[in-house]
Amino acid sequence: MAVNYDFIVIGGGSSGSALASNLATKGPTLLIERGANHTAYPQSSVRQGWPQITAIAWDHIQNRGSGHWTGTANILGGGSALNGAVCWRGERSIFESLGFELASVESAFEMLEDRLCTANDDADTEYMNAFRSAWEEHGYEPIDSAPGLSSWVENVTSVTTIQRARTLLPITGTRQPASDLFEDDLLRNDGNLTVFLLTKAKRVLFNDNKVAIGVEINSPSGDASIYIRNGGKVFLNTGAYETPKLLMLSGIGPDNTLAKYGIPKVYGNNAVGQNLIDRKEASIGIPTLKSLEGSDIGVLDYAAISNDYWASIAHTHAFAWGNVIQGCGVCDVKHRTPACIEQMLGALLFYGMGRDSNIAFYYVAQRRPLTRGNVTLASADFRDPPIVHDGWSMEYEELTASNKHDLDVFVDAVQDLVVDFLRNTTLIERLGQSSGSTNEGPFLGELTEAYFDARMAIAGLDDELDQCTFLDYFKIADTFCTNWDECTPSIPSFPRNDRRKVRDIVFKTLASSQHMAGTCKAGAVVDKGTLSVMGVQGLYIGDLSVVTEPVDTHPMMTAMALGLLLGESTDRVPSADFEATPVIMALLGIATVAGLFFLWACTWIRQSIISQPFRHEDMEHVEPQSFFDIFAQNGSQQRKVDGAIELGNVGTELTPQPADNSDGAGIDVSSQQDTSMPGGKRPRLMKWSNVSCVYHTKTPGKSKKSITTLFNNSGCMREGEVTAIMGPSGAAKSTLLDILAGRKSVGAISGTFSVLGRSFSMSGRGRDGLDDLGNSIQGVSAYIPQQEYFYPTQTCGEVIRFTANMKFGKANQKEERTILVRACLDAVGLESEAYASRKIGGELAGGVMVRGLSGGERKRLALASVLALKPKMLFIDELTSGLDSENAFVTMKLLKDLSVKMHVATLIIIHQPSPDTFALFDSLILLSKGRCLFSDSCSNLATFYRSNYDESIPTNTILADDLIVKASAYESFDDNAMRMTVDPSITEDFIEAEEGGLSSITSLIVDGNDSLNFTSISRAFFKLFVIFHRNLVNQYIRNITNVGARLASYSGLSLIIGAVFWKVGITDSDRGLTFEESNIVLRTNLYLMNVSYLLPFSTIPVFFADKKFLAAESALGLYPTWMYGMSQVFLEFLFLTLMSTIEAAIVIPMCGLYNPTMPAAVNFLTTAAILIVSGLVGSTMVFCCSIWLPTQDLAFLTGSTVVTISLSLSGGFLPFTEMPDLPHTFQWISPIKYSFQAMTIAQLKGTSAEKVIDLAGYDTPASISDNMWILYGIFFALSFLTALGMARVKEVR
Ligand SMILES: Cc1cc2nc3c(=O)[nH]c(=O)nc-3n(C[C@H](O)[C@H](O)[C@H](O)COP(=O)(O)OP(=O)(O)OC[C@H]3O[C@@H](n4cnc5c(N)ncnc54)[C@H](O)[C@@H]3O)c2cc1C
């Protein structure tokens, strides 16, 4: 039932039928008519049947003022199906006052005359001739009125004319009511017109924006609501009584009326129902004692028209009908009770008419009355007729000035057109009576019999009817008229010389003309020109209610013309044009996916087929070079520039130190002395003194607590030396290492530092100086964490190359990179030809294990990768843990050799070094519960033992263990009692104390920025590209299990949805889904939103693995973390676009999510675009949570809470119009709302179910594009947040 139309016309009467037939040429139109089809009544088409059809298809109403009977048609065709069928054009002034172009008005009239109104071009009959001749005698001038009323006839000078109208009911043939226009060739409506008969409109429906959206109806099958499409229109054409009533029932009307009946106000307008024009007529019978030929022909079509009034004649059928309908003329006005009228109508219906009568029906009407009445509601029940007050009264004394003016006009009219007319013309003789004073007494004899005949023809002898008697009229005659000279021979008879008596008789004789109009006046209720109802949108009035002034003579054609003109001026409802934005977005998405695939394919082909990086052959191809040679070249170049010092150890061959080089304690000290340096000591690259670290903690309910973990530590790192940090667990080894490496992220740090000649001092408050220290250190150092992180799918060569790329940029050519890779691997003992292309292995994000390097090999690779950075300082957190003692020694030996040869100052945490390993250390920092027991060259350990413990230094084999035992046993932290040995030179001023001076130190810094010749912007791009490429290769090309699993879950789920919601969107109608069908599609859309927003949760572990990797890698300081964040967000964007495109490709055809009003390709692209952007938002939400939240559980909890809330506010479960205020307010924060809305609009826009969008409030915003822009906005905001979150990721140490 609830199907969308472009236009709904309520009321299929004269104007409504014309309007509907025109609108149907522009789009699907519904005409709602409360009555039955006029063709169901044979009386409606035959000439003599029209009184009966009027009696049948008539809804009566009694005027409260005058008591006159009136009413509205209740049949398809309205008044045109039951009226007198006279076609007069309305005056120009009527249309001018409504704002219509006269040219189009004239065409409308011509069209109506051509289609419906037959011209009366038969020869005049004797009956008509009698009247016409009499009018001519009386001074009226016949004119050719074929084009209609005189106002449309050029060159008419006389104001008293005789005109002849056209008719809907030709003498031969059948009636052509307005509804015949439906069949008209010119108005071919292509099946667009639907007519609901016996259906009553209850009220017009509006949305919150006061836009008309449909109509509530009551039909034989019950109540229902029918809607128009967006941009469609509703028209009220229910006549001057019903139209204001419907407006009021719809909430538009006087405030007090709406309040009285509890009708929700849409727009208050006191003018609704005012200005009722119920033009009056007086029916007068003229006795025809002579039988006139052709008395049945002239049907209200002959008229004598003067300036203020007119008169017309009718055939015999019309007389009886006129007496009944036109005010129950045979009754005194006081007896015009409903029962009386109904019985008369019943009698009329039963007996029928068509008998000969001896009375010529003649009626007189005023043209431009001043009296105005009003229409108001009788109740809020649509079934109750409105209360009509015509502005008149039953008592003369109560008449208003306007009434009296109108009554005067009537008296003039009767005087002119009846009294004087009968006296001064020969009409009375022509009708069979003799004129002159010889006629004695009141009207008795033949005339009286004629009266009674007429009465008997229409009336039974019921009591009720007895009250409606001619006696009053006879009484008048008895009382006032004794002869022809005194009284006019008419019914009622009028005294000739007493105007006051004439006025009284006229007043009693007046009746409604049934030409009501003006109750929704243009300029007060509707806008002039458009006829659009004020205060609302999409609602128009097209019937006689809108006229401002009385329509002259018969108004039916004016009503029809209004319908046509309104239809003509109504634009087509724009078809649901598809929106370009989603289509462009989808194309861009698909192009991106194609690009991704291309990139993927190219990389795969390059790596798998053309040149796998660092293949065996590549390695063989390059000349093997010693890493130290490469380093020495760079170093000596630098030194040449600075020319300050020479490094004697450069190029020295690495050999384990012979045992005989040890001192008495067996410690190898050969490498601890650099004889080339003045004073025999190597330069210190870094030193620190009084370094402390305090944690401030606060437990609930307790006061703030400070825990000092590191106390006043001092020490230094010398070039070419390895310094070990040792101590039992909890000794703060890592704390010290992290502070010195510039990686400490928590705790208040204090102390003074000197790094390559730059001094830093920290007070322990905030992070003052800490970041500067970190930046200075990280620029020249490298850090190897305890747990090294590599992409398991990366090869060893790639790891080194990546580090080199990050450090040195693009300047070095491929071959140089290969040489470097080879040298680095060889330097750490990983044979480059075998290892360069070997995968590192480990657990992939997603859980799959990849075979690869052993623990020792990984440690070496970690070392090799930092070698590529050519650091001056190396910080290592437990390089040997997890290795057997042999492996540990070999690794440490390697480190020692590298340190010496590269002049690197190495600081390493070590737990339990073997004696051989311990022997490799140049210096030692021994910590115990944060205190420093020893911080000096290992050669001073003997002194340490002697002076602090009064012991000789233990043998080499137990020295390391004994030191740990000493540190573990050390309980007292009384500074005075503490036994501590610290290199005394540390406290000296760095620059002055340092042999060689600052310049010689800084000259050793190998800084890519200086040695390479390219700008920081291009380096940033290069770095970004390298990171992007590495992540693309490792996460999306080599981690095929993860990619495959994600692809499989998206496509699998899409297939399941397709199977479950199989073809739900397919409908036979080319106007799309019905309301009921659309319900299921909405559910499908909602389910799809679940996929877009919930499926990404499966990737949380992947995001966390990523975060962990980034945290570890960011510690190396190779690149700014935002670069990683950006590349990851972009990679996800590409991948998700691919996923969503696949989802769209499966789901749309399987579920049949087609909107038939859009081209199929556009439909697909639009839906795909929405799914893509929804997938992006859903996934980025999860991504963002994963990056910002510390644990997976929390990310799951937060993400799922956000999505659940978002789903509940999406409008999919509960339409927005049904939502309570609070959630309704929060709907805007739900991204799923926009996704769901966009999908719903895409599916339903322009279809029969389009109104669902409006009714459920899925129109904020109303276009797909706007919803998508918001989603893209959310996506970019979330992406930015995610990248920001990634930029902040670092290891908490
Ligand atoms: C007896 C009689 C004789 C007349 N003779 C002539 C004549 O000879 N020449 C002339 O020019 N004029 C004549 N008129 C006047 C002319 O018929 C009307 O002025 C004209 O029909 C008005 O057109 P309309 O479209 O405004 O209203 P109508 O033609 O009355 O149309 C209103 C339509 O709305 C329908 N309707 C009302 N309420 C609802 C609802 N809630 N839901 C659905 N449908 C509804 C009605 O059933 C009706 O079909 C005569 C009128 C009458 C009553």
TrEMBL record:
TM regions (residue ranges): 583-605, 1047-1066, 1086-1105, 1133-1155, 1161-1189, 1196-1216, 1269-1287
UniProt-listed Gene3D superfamilies: 3.30.410.40, FAD/NAD(P)-binding domain, P-loop containing nucleotide triphosphate hydrolases
SMART domains in alphabetical order: AAA (SM00382)
Region annotation Disordered: where it falls in the sequence: 653-682
GO cellular component, one term: membrane
Keyword list, A-Z: ATP-binding, Membrane, Nucleotide-binding, Transmembrane, Transmembrane helix, Transport
Localization per record: Membrane
Pfam families reported for this sequence: ABC2_membrane, ABC_tran, GMC_oxred_C, GMC_oxred_N
Domain of life: Eukaryota
Domain ABC transporter: 686-954
Keyword Transmembrane: yes
Molecular function in Gene Ontology: ABC-type transporter activity; ATP binding; ATP hydrolysis activity; flavin adenine dinucleotide binding; oxidoreductase activity, acting on CH-OH group of donors
Name the record gives this protein: ABC transporter domain-containing protein
Species the sequence originates in: Chaetoceros debilis
